Amino acid sequence: MRTVSVALVGFGNVGKAFVRLLARKQEDIRQRYDLDIRITGIATRRHGTVITPEGMDLQVLLDRIQRGSDLNGLSPYPVPEDTFTFIQKVPADVLVEITPVNYETGEPALTHIRMALQRGMHAVTANKGPVVHGYQELQALAREQGRAFFFESTVMDGAPIFSLFREALPGVKVTGLEGILNSTTNLILTRMETHGESLDEAVAYAQSIGIAETDPSGDIDGWDAAIKVAALVTVLMGHPLKPQDVQREGIRHLTPEDIHRAREEGRRWKLVCRAYWENGSLVARVAPEKVASHSPLYSVMGTSSLLRLETDVLGDLSIREDDPSPETTAYGLLADILNAVRART
Amino acid sequence: MRTVSVALVGFGNVGKAFVRLLARKQEDIRQRYDLDIRITGIATRRHGTVITPEGMDLQVLLDRIQRGSDLNGLSPYPVPEDTFTFIQKVPADVLVEITPVNYETGEPALTHIRMALQRGMHAVTANKGPVVHGYQELQALAREQGRAFFFESTVMDGAPIFSLFREALPGVKVTGLEGILNSTTNLILTRMETHGESLDEAVAYAQSIGIAETDPSGDIDGWDAAIKVAALVTVLMGHPLKPQDVQREGIRHLTPEDIHRAREEGRRWKLVCRAYWENGSLVARVAPEKVASHSPLYSVMGTSSLLRLETDVLGDLSIREDDPSPETTAYGLLADILNAVRART
């Protein structure tokens, strides 16, 4: 049995879901892959830091999570004061980077991942920042170090998008893409349609169930969708793109009347992401569109999402995820870890 | 540059599309994967057999295909008289098995693949027979030989289903599935809805464009869908299942009136495949269902197809393929070859 030591930087909802998922899957992974995945460190900015070279007792960790307590006092050794020193010191094969995203610079996640790869660790992240601000550099560094830089959970939670392209579609050229990639706005549009709510009412509902943030503008104005488009175009279409390069229009101006009129035409308003080549230039945009019923996007409701790829050898290929949860994102991280460390089957 | 020699047994539409695709992609594959894929042999039952250890000139082969001539006279050496001797003699790293399917026994494809693996070749097939009649045996043999037995093109043409599960979804348990997996019946139901055709008229249309066979009963009575369900359950759900074990009801009894009435309810008749666990038993069936508009199946029209997987860690995951062509199936074979021979990235 091979031991795989994992260190986490950041420990919010996704980190906690990751611990729960690992506790549930640990035995299965031992049996199927002969891998013993352990958590040897967790660093947070305000809730303490812990390093346990022999691996943490996940049950103790789950109890702490359950009680809402921080990580202080868990560490048998003195712990570094900042995340950078933590990454230098923690004994781990894989760094899981799950700090909050910074759209403009990708920091500090970018530095965290660079440091981990330089130390010879695999780096796995749910953070879109380092992908749009450092993909080429980090990918080259990973290759040089013989390590993996994977980020499945950055788009469509844990649904396999990047790994599908990387592992299951050899020789394919992605020539264009479209999708519904922001769950919050899709839930809002669904509520406006099915419950006749105004935008503000639908936002309040999305906030009440923990989907929308206190300041929902990152979702509503299309920033989250734009950064996902930038990540997809950069990685799948091989064309480096910044979120600022994505034409962006949010859903703020849509009224219940707009929604209603579209329904009368047998259509639905959706916040649609698109990227395609036009006269040798790449066009990328996020904007509301009235989608017709024959489109795969039409039946994507609530927090579900869909990505359609146009390729040079397959008919159009769509991946759709229904009813994701924080555990779905956690699964993306676990899949990245397994894909990084297991041999090709 | 590593040379990969490929031998084909069977040379119908898919084989011809494979040669066209390889000619188009050969240079790209050399550059991206440092692999030189060559065809060193083709065996057919009635159209000749050829062995060229140094690799065939694909242009000469394409010209022959274009002219509709057979393979006789192409071989610089005397050629074996039967496919079994061909597989024993042909100098190849990979066997591509694309003979017509035999639903009851899986032969002769099963024997072809067994012989190829025993000789130390990778085996790749678009033939569902060996999957439902020999998966466990062939998989074990492949593992023992350190070779691959891949069959992406058996379900949903070349769309990544088995490779997705194998390469991109580590640690996932598939607990159930549903889908539209037979293009011919879906096209027939689409024509009945959109053109008001009777079943017979829609069948005639599907035959006229080369989608339905002269005897369409394999599609219409649900056999093709049932064998696909058996393959998916066997491989993805780890539960060996024969096509005969799938409850099966075709679309023969559906009338234009049925289709019309469903539309009035906002629904559509689809030939739906399902597999799930119920009280510890696996239930698998193929039957027409009236699908509601919120289902991912609803907007799958014409020859498009969709597979939805229920798993233990992801929300429901669907893969949809729109507008496949024979080249799509050929791509599945090429992807299998590349996945068999390239190292994990």
Main β-sheet of chain A, in a few words?
Answer: 6 strands, mixed
Strand content of chain A: 15-25%
Distance between the ends of chain A = 17 Å
* Spatial strand arrangement across the major sheet of chain A: 3-2-1-4-5-6
Number of strands of chain A: 12
Query: Largest interface, with Cβ-Cβ < 8 Å?
Result: A-B, 52 and 52 residues
Structural class of chain A: alpha/beta
How many helix segments of chain A?
12
Explain the overall architecture:
Two copies of one chain form a homodimer. With 345 residues, the first copy, chain A, is of the alpha/beta class. Chain A has two domains: 175 residues, Rossmann fold (3-Layer(aba) Sandwich); 148 residues, Dihydrodipicolinate Reductase, domain 2. Helix content of chain A is 40%, strand content 22%. Chain A has twelve helices and twelve strands. A six-stranded mixed beta sheet of chain A has the order 3-2-1-4-5-6, with helices on both faces. Chain A has a six-stranded mixed beta sheet with strand order 8-10-9-7-11-12. In chain A, strand 5, helix 5 and strand 6 form a beta-alpha-beta unit. In chain A, helix 4 runs parallel beside helix 5 and helix 5 runs parallel beside helix 10. The longest helix of chain A has 21 residues. The model of chain A has no long low-confidence stretch (mean pLDDT 94).
